[in-house]
């Protein structure tokens, strides 16, 4: 009886130990990734990125968790020393803060091991390099352009504008037809103002001057910046270019102004390239056609060729406290390693999200891609390669000066402070950020 | 076991202990931490540097903070007058309704049980320049509400306060009504015999008799007006041009947008002292024999 019991016990123990070693030896490393949630894109990302990654290999099991307001969610998680293995942030200025606090892992060894620098566009790779090491990779790149109602322009014999004189002349013609010049509004996102400020800095003061101010070789109070803000004030307040008047601009949200543009309430829409998807969708429901152009140059000191402002829309990083950093790096490498797949994913999202800053060539594109979107992808790559690029505030500004741009622009528009006073405050905050070593990398021009 | 450990007093402390424990870690400890943080330049993540009273000096130079304090005062005065007066009148009138009173109570109280985001969206649509009343009037050829009051710096604060008052006054109706039902009927009967008018009964019987509940409502309004945040945040984000910025919004912006957690803590400490002064003031009144 005792022998029988021993046998059963042995079999039981053998089974338990085998099961234990089998699971611990062969179980995939689990990597958890907290991503910024967007109802429009989450299902596609889950299917084409997370599920596809898990289906292709069995070394690493990726769990994607979509979070609202990722920055508010990730902060306490990182501070408590826990959190996911990988996480998104809204931009490089946040990474700088995490890096200072030792909450984000340097990915330099993985970048060297997998050759990420060769895969990514130079400026995009550099945007994640702090103190010589890589801490974040952009998930998406974008720039500011303007869309226009092509049918409307053809019907009225209007030409797309290339300089300030043409912009103001066209605006007068559009207003005479009872339409608004540009559709836009800030009710859905107050920092929308910074899009406009960045546009005027880059097309009036010019990218060279913006670059010099970013690295401290120029003052933000120099005349070209003050004049750019004054011109924006004139166009917004005196001329009512955006949605008719300042108050209506404050009242319209994303759906409102996109709808206004598609239904001929406005002739143009000055927005980031994330607007491709919704513009194509909305115009698909009308008989009108649309197209896009780079922003017109408003002053000769901004150069003669159009410039594309560089912007990253969200970044991905590895938690310094992650025990599965190697697995997380494998996930990132998988994402960066297949341009065809990357284009397929972003194509499914209308090129408005997950447009990874990889070195695409003509051969990488699906032959069925909308030619207008393909033109953007190739022209942007050519322009940024040849140095015709500018700088967005949300990618290259530290936190405090960045918030000042969109919070206090309203004060200029309200007439409570002058453009010069606005830029003086900007300079003060930049000086403070520089003294605090809170600047984000710009990359040599 | 020593007797004092099993006494009734000790047992009551055992039951209180979980609450005190949670209160210490969730309220007291962060509050004390906040008091210390106001002397630092912490950004919420990294090094914490002691900066002495620099944040307080900055606070008195901060034009947005001064504006926000002014807006909080205006906000408090509005809430101490408009909803209080309306609620008192409506509650008094409701006491005279015998049938269907519950319906009115439900209607008045309904906005109070709605989430602030719902209330805000309702009013945002009402005042929307394209789809709201403004658009409707425009179609009738009338130039009225063509611009949303939330988007004009002259009206934004009052428009937001209006929405919050619309949601809040039903709550006051209910507590005043409760107080009014506790007034002894014989006082009204005696006043009727003396030939008192409805207003005289309200002025000389109802108001004095509900004074404790009335004063309590004023204390609640003053204290709740200090951290007011959600309606401003949802409807205007403090704009346009800080015209509806209140202190709690400024604190949020400093802590979570500008990452100046040390400075935000200083704003929080000032709010704490202000509420302390209000509570202290009413405590002194109570000691002086006021029924508050």
What is this structure's SSE topology?
The complex is a heterodimer of chains A (445) and B (292).
Chain A: H1 2-26, E1 29-36, H2 42-56, E2 60-67, H3 70-79, E3 86-89, H4 92-100, H5 108-114, H6 116-119, H7 122-126, E4 129-130, E5 133-134, E6 137-138, E7 141-142, E8 144-149, H8 150-156, H9 164-176, E9 180-182, H10 192-205, H11 207-214, H12 223-238, H13 246-251, H14 254-262, E10 266-272, H15 275-284, E11 290-294, E12 308-312, E13 315-318, H16 325-336, H17 339-348, H18 371-385, E14 389-391, H19 393-396, H20 399-413, H21 419-435
Parallel strand pairs in A: 1-2, 1-3, 9-10, 12-14
Antiparallel strand pairs in A: 3-13, 4-5, 6-13, 7-12, 8-10, 8-11
Helix pairs in contact in A: 10-11, 10-12, 10-20, 12-21, 14-15, 20-21
Chain B: H1 8-37, H2 54-61, H3 63-95, H4 101-113, H5 116-126, H6 133-139, H7 156-181, H8 185-193, H9 198-209, H10 211-225, H11 230-235, H12 247-257, H13 261-287
Helix pairs in contact in B: 1-13, 2-13, 3-7, 3-10, 3-12, 4-7, 12-13
Shape of chain A: globular
Low-confidence stretches of chain A: none
Strand order of the largest sheet of chain A: 2-1-3-13-6
Structural category of chain A: alpha/beta
For the record, the CATH architecture of the domain at 59-116 and 156-287 in chain B stands as Orthogonal Bundle
Protein architecture, described:
- The complex is a heterodimer of chains A (445) and B (292).
- Chain A is of the alpha/beta class and 445 residues long.
- Helix content of chain A is 52%, strand content 14%.
- Chain A is built from 21 helices and 14 strands.
- In chain A, a hairpin with a 2-residue loop joins β4 (129-130) and β5 (133-134).
- In chain A, α10 packs across α11 and α20 (399-413) runs antiparallel to α21.
- Chain A starts with a helix and ends in a 10-residue tail after the last helix.
- The mean pLDDT of chain A is 91.
- Chain B has a domain at 59-116 and 156-287: MetI-like fold.
- In chain B, 71% of the residues lie in helices and 0% in strands.
- The longest helix of chain B is centred in the first third of the chain and has 33 residues, at 63-95.
- The two termini of chain B are 44 Å apart.
- The mean pLDDT of chain B is 92.
- The A-B interface holds A 72, 75, 78-79, 97-98, 100-103, 187, 190, 245-248, 250-252, 256, 260, 399-400, 403, 407, 410-411, 413-414, 416 and B 43-47, 124, 128-130, 147-148, 150-153, 237, 239-243, 253, 256-260.
């Amino acid at each position: 009886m005792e022998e029988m019991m021993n046998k059963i016990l042995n079999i039981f123990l053998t089974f338990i130990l085998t099961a234990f070693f089998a699971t611990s030896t062969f179980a995939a490393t689990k990597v958890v990734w907290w991503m910024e949630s967007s109802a429009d894109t989450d299902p596609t990302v889950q299917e084409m990125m997370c599920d596809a990654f898990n289906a292709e290999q069995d070394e690493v099991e990726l769990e994607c968790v979509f979070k609202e307001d990722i920055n508010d969610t990730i902060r306490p998680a990182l501070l408590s020393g826990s959190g996911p293995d990988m996480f998104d942030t809204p931009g490089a200025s946040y990474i700088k803060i995490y890096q200072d606090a030792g909450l984000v892992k340097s990915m330099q060894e993985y970048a060297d091991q997998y050759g990420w620098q060769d895969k990514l566009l130079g400026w995009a790779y550099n945007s994640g390099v702090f103190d010589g090491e890589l801490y974040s990779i952009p998930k998406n790149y974008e720039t500011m352009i303007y869309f226009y109602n092509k049918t409307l322009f053809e019907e009225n014999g209007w030409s797309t504008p290339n300089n300030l004189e043409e912009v103001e002349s066209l605006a007068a013609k559009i207003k005479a037809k009872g339409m608004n010049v540009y559709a836009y509004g800030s009710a859905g996102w107050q920092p929308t103002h910074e899009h406009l400020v960045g546009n005027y800095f880059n097309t009036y003061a010019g990218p060279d001057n913006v670059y010099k101010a970013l690295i401290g070789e120029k003052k933000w109070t120099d005349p070209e910046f003050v004049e750019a803000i004054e011109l924006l004030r004139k166009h917004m307040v005196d001329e009512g270019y955006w949605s008719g008047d300042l108050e209506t601009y404050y009242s319209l949200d994303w759906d409102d102004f996109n709808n206004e543009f598609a239904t001929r309430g406005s002739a143009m829409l000055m927005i980031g390239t994330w607007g491709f998807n919704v513009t194509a969708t909305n115009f698909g429901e009308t008989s009108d056609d649309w197209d896009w152009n780079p922003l017109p140059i408003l002053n000769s000191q901004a150069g003669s060729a159009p410039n594309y402002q560089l912007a990253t829309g969200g970044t991905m990083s590895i938690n310094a406290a992650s025990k599965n950093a190697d697995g997380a790096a494998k996930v990132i490498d998988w994402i960066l390693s297949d341009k065809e797949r990357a284009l397929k994913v972003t194509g499914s999202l209308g090129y408005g999200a997950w447009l990874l800053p990889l070195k695409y060539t003509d051969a990488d594109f699906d032959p069925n891609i909308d030619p207008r979107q393909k033109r953007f992808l190739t022209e942007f790559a050519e322009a940024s390669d040849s140095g015709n690029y500018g700088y967005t505030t949300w990618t290259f500004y530290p936190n405090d000066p960045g918030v000042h741009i969109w919070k206090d622009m309203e004060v200029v528009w309200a007439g409570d402070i002058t453009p010069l006073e606005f830029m003086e405050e900007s300079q003060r905050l930049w000086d403070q950020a520089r003294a605090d070593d809170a600047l984000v990398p710009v990359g040599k021009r | 076991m020593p007797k004092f450990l099993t006494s009734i007093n000790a047992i009551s402390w055992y039951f209180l202990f979980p609450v005190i424990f949670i209160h210490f870690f969730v309220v007291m400890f962060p509050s004390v931490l906040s008091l210390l943080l106001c002397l630092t330049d912490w950004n919420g993540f990294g090094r914490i540097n002691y900066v002495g009273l620099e944040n307080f000096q900055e606070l008195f130079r901060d034009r947005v903070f001064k504006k926000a304090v002014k807006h909080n005062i205006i906000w408090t005065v509005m809430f101490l007058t408009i909803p209080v007066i309306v609620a008192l009148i409506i509650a008094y009138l409701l006491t005279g309704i015998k049938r269907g009173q519950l319906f009115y109570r439900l209607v008045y109280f309904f906005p109070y049980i709605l989430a602030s985001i719902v209330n805000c969206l309702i009013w945002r649509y009402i005042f929307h320049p394209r789809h709201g009343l403004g658009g409707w009037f425009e179609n009738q050829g009338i130039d009225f509400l063509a611009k949303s009051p939330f988007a004009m710096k002259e009206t934004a604060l009052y428009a937001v306060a209006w929405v919050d008052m619309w949601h809040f006054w039903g709550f006051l109706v209910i507590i005043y009504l409760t107080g009014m039902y506790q007034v002894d009927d014989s006082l009204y009967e005696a006043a009727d015999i003396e030939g008192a008018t409805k207003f005289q009964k309200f002025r000389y019987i109802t108001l004095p008799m509900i004074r404790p509940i009335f004063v309590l409502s004023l204390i609640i309004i003053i204290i709740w007006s200090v951290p007011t945040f959600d309606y401003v945040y949802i409807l205007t984000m403090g704009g346009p041009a800080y015209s509806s910025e209140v202190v709690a919004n400024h604190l949020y912006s400093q802590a979570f947008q500008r990452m100046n957690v040390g400075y935000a803590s200083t704003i929080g400490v000032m709010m704490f002292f202000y509420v302390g002064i209000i509570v202290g003031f009413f405590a002194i009144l109570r000691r002086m024999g006021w029924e508050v």
